[in-house]
Write a structure and sequence with these properties.
The chain is mainly beta and 76 residues long. The protein has one domain (4-28, 38-75). It contains two helices and three strands. A three-stranded antiparallel β-sheet has the order 1-2-3. A hairpin with a 2-residue loop joins strand 2 (54-63) and strand 3 (66-75). The protein starts with 6 loop residues before the first helix and ends with a strand.
Length: 76
């Protein structure tokens, strides 16, 4: 969860500046009851290739009037 007063600084992260705008494909937690990625509104999705075979996806949006962040990553 991101406090309202920290949202803008969170969005200044490199993944939001230079990442691709795409919905996440890595959804490790999708079978968990807390994984409600499809329910968030005002949603921003980003994905980014990282050095050394790493890949990251991030989604931020509102859920019950709170800013929620879902982060997924993988290494090859």
């Amino acid at each position: 969860m991101i406090p309202e007063n920290k949202k803008q600084s969170f969005l200044e992260n490199e993944i939001f500046k230079s990442g691709e705008s795409s919905k996440p494909s890595i959804q490790i937690g999708r079978r968990e009851s807390w994984w409600k990625l499809d329910d968030i509104i005002e949603r921003i999705d980003r994905a980014k290739e990282l050095p050394k075979g790493r890949y990251m996806e991030c989604s931020i949006g509102r859920e019950d009037s709170k800013w929620i962040v879902y982060i997924s990553w993988m290494e090859t």
